[in-house]
Write a structure and sequence with these properties.
Layout lengths: L4 H16 L6 H13 L4 H9 L12 H16 L6 H14 L3 H11 L9 H11 L2
Amino acid sequence: MTYTLEEKKAILSELIIMAHADQHIKKEEIAFIHAIGKRLELDEGELSHMVEHPEELKITVPQQFVKRIVHFHRLMLMMHIDGHVDSAELQLLYQTALKYGIRKTTVDTLLHTMEKYPHGEIPPSELMSIHQRNHN
């Protein structure tokens, strides 16, 4: 999947905002953000600035359905990465789902399904199946 520079920044912005949601950014969250940033070939200095200044970040909803699904799963992984789901993180996830046009029942199914897999990584075919089953 190819992304524009703006899409890459938007992806990382939402991950950073999720990492800050519980007011405690942890080393696992930073490592995940940097791994995604590296995969997306984003400048390390710019990424560090984004992490240090989350108040400057803006959210952009991905236009393509598949990109929304993939990125929403990244957000779910970020939420679980430290082994604890805070209520602020869960609230942000549901708010993001609403912006993305993802139903609450779909989010609940995804959260439940994540528990079945190591590190919460739902296989792509199952991820797509869950979203298609509940998509308008």
